[in-house]
């Protein structure tokens, strides 16, 4: 069994934890990380299935370290040979917060040296290692004098789904886009609209969720090159993603944007994801949005008006959006913005707000819940 950590953006920990539990693993939640135990198949399935996690790490050890000697000896005492083959390429990165050992470059060098010592003894080698084999990215993270040593099992961050051929100037991370959809009351039988679709990330993530398609089905992971995860485990996990996908689920998903170039990029990205026929994109301003459909869900990440000069235009657009969406009393509306006056421009207080971070920007997710459909007898 391995000690696994799914890392998470601030504010999304509860969602990541729910996803981990849905995969069948008990977990503990801390700031920015969800810890659980699992076998090799858990590493593989977590990489393939977790929509809102940033990456999967394997915890090799955690200990107090206030001196470089302590860091060296305790790192050397860990069973690195269980993970790293003789030809492993193992760069070490680091970070240090509120710790006596604050020089990150020194910590990295010491950890590297300690692992080399351990490996030399195990592989009976006197010189340096060639490091021309599979990649094991090691991180030493010091927080309040506690060192956490992990190996990254994802490679590129999990937000890199493999479908983004093009993007706009402020793209939303796929992991956050998936979270925005999962924090709504949307189900695949309801209409779904993103009136600020940009490069199409939110509608694409909604379609993946709607058909239960694993977000990692279309990409590779660094741990695919590791000898101690048998190829069969990867094959079985990928077969599971095929078995569980519901490609027959009909979807009614629309993305609109004021910029025709973004609409074209969104279409290309949707085709790249294999969802080109499922999502309808068109050029439109939010103030022109009308629909006769009922009980739908709108999710939007509109411009925030952070730049001077954009402010007035954005406030006007929020007001126009409020006016256009006001008649849709059966629809639920969810808007992500850092603009703290959003409710007053939109013209209505939110049913609920949730704090989220879009990159380093603190934002609120304003939720307006529509009427519930009448109960069918």
TrEMBL record:
One of its GO terms (molecular function) is rRNA (guanine-N2-)-methyltransferase activity. It comes from the Bacteria. Pfam families: RlmL_1st, THUMP, UPF0020. CDD domains: THUMP_AdoMetMT (cd11715). SMART domains: THUMP (SM00981). Keywords: Methyltransferase, RNA-binding, Transferase. Residues 42-153 form the THUMP domain. InterPro entries: DNA_methylase_N6_adenine_CS (IPR002052), RlmKL-like_Mtase (IPR000241), RlmKL-like_Mtase_CS (IPR053943), RlmL_1st (IPR054170), SAM-dependent_MTases_sf (IPR029063), THUMP_dom (IPR004114). This is RNA methyltransferase. It comes from Cytobacillus solani.
């Amino acid at each position: 069994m391995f000690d696994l950590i799914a890392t998470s953006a601030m504010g999304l920990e509860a969602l990541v934890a729910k996803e981990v539990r849905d995969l069948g693993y008990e977990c503990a939640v801390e700031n920015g990380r969800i810890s659980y135990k699992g076998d090799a198949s858990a590493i593989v399935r977590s990489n393939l299935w977790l929509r809102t996690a940033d990456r999967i790490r394997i915890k090799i050890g955690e200990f107090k370290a206030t001196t470089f000697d302590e860091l060296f000896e305790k790192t050397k005492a860990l069973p690195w040979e269980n993970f790293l083959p003789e030809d492993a390429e193992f760069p070490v990165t680091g970070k240090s917060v509120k710790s006596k050992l604050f020089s990150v470059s020194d910590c990295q060098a010491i950890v590297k040296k300690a692992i080399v010592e351990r490996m030399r003894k195990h592989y009976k080698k006197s010189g340096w290692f060639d490091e021309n084999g599979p990649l094991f990215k090691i991180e030493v993270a010091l927080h309040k004098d506690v060192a956490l040593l992990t190996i990254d099992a994802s490679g590129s961050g999990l937000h890199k789904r493999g479908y983004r051929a093009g993007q706009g100037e402020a793209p939303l991370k796929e992991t956050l886009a998936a979270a925005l959809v999962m924090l709504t009351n949307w189900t695949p039988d309801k209409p779904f609209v993103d009136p600020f679709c940009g490069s199409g990330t939110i509608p694409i993530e909604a379609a993946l969720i709607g058909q239960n398609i694993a977000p990692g089905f279309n990409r590779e992971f660094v741990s695919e090159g590791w000898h101690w995860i048998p190829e069969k485990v990867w094959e079985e996990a990928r077969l599971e993603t095929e078995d569980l996908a519901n490609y027959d689920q009909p979807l009614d998903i629309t993305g609109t944007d004021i910029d025709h170039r973004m609409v074209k990029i969104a279409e290309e990205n949707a085709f790249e994801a294999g969802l080109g026929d499922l999502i309808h994109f068109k050029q439109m301003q939010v103030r022109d949005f009308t629909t006769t459909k009922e009980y739908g869900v709108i999710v939007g990440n509109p411009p925030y008006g952070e730049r001077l000069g954009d402010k007035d235009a954005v406030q006007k657009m929020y007001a126009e959006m409020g006016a256009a969406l006001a008649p849709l009393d059966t629809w639920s509306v969810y808007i992500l913005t850092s603009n703290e006056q959003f409710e007053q421009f939109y013209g209505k207080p939110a049913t609920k707000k949730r704090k989220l971070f879009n990159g380093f920007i603190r934002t609120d997710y304003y939720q307006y819940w529509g009427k519930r459909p009448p109960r069918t007898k």
